[in-house]
Amino acid sequence: PPERKRFYQNVSISQGEGGFEINLDHRKLKTPQAKLFTVPSEALALAVATEWDSQKDTIKFYTMHLTTLCNTALDNPTQRNKMQLIRAAVKFLETDTVCYRVEEPPGLAELQKNEWDPVVAWAEKRYNVEIGSSTSILGPNIPASTKETFVSHLASYNMWALQGIEYVVTQLKSLILSMGLIDRHITVEKAVLLSRLEEEYQIQRWGNVEWAHDYDLCELRARAAAGTLFVHLCSESSTVKHKLLQD
């Protein structure tokens, strides 16, 4: 949506029957489908409230990734159930960025091996699965047992967290990097770098388009970080004790 002039002074959260709500002055925040904006954890509510409080003269909706993810979870515009969300995330294994390798140029092939092999090895050990890699245009042959293991693992997350997981997977084009990030095995910066390895290699050789590369990099980091934080906050069960929006 286009930017909108900020129409509120104060942002706060309150607990209602369905969870935690966001208050813009005396107005209750609503979703695009006019549902009451209610989130399952106090920590997530505080994070969303901070997004709204951080807006200046105009509301830049495209910077509010947590709010957008909450709206998606509440409105569920694609009307998908839990298993459909899980299958959509696991499907990325078939085209996972870190599983597709090149043979030429040798420098890039070596870089992929050095940078991607360790995270694939971590995932295989962490989930007790076989993943592998391939230089074929068809990609690696992922065993059915590997896919089912990831399906079972993702089933342990709630619907809200799964929305965040699929969001991160979509940003990084990789289930493996996403799980490494969510499991705190790699940082946001590392996950983004690994997801853009070929592009970074080309930039090192030929240079980059001024400002465009840095903008894309920062935007991807912001989205990956927001999605990961969303997953963790949706899995948060303890009450967060705080003083709202302290300076």
Automatic annotation (TrEMBL):
<dbReference type="GO" id="GO:0033615">
    <property type="term" value="P:mitochondrial proton-transporting ATP synthase complex assembly"/>
</dbReference>
<protein>
    <recommendedName>
        <fullName>ATP synthase mitochondrial F1 complex assembly factor 2</fullName>
    </recommendedName>
</protein>
<comment type="subunit">
    <text>Interacts with ATP5F1B; involved in the assembly of the F1 component of the mitochondrial ATP synthase (ATPase). Interacts with FMC1.</text>
</comment>
<keyword id="KW-0143">Chaperone</keyword>
<keyword id="KW-0472">Membrane</keyword>
<dbReference type="Pfam" id="PF07542">
    <property type="entry name" value="ATP12"/>
</dbReference>
<dbReference type="GO" id="GO:0005743">
    <property type="term" value="C:mitochondrial inner membrane"/>
</dbReference>
<dbReference type="InterPro" id="IPR042272">
    <property type="entry name" value="ATP12_ATP_synth-F1-assembly_N"/>
</dbReference>
<dbReference type="InterPro" id="IPR011419">
    <property type="entry name" value="ATP12_ATP_synth-F1-assembly"/>
</dbReference>
<dbReference type="InterPro" id="IPR023335">
    <property type="entry name" value="ATP12_ortho_dom_sf"/>
</dbReference>
<keyword id="KW-0809">Transit peptide</keyword>
<comment type="similarity">
    <text>Belongs to the ATP12 family.</text>
</comment>
<comment type="function">
    <text>Plays a role in the assembly of the F1 component of the mitochondrial ATP synthase (ATPase).</text>
</comment>
<keyword id="KW-0496">Mitochondrion</keyword>
<keyword id="KW-0999">Mitochondrion inner membrane</keyword>
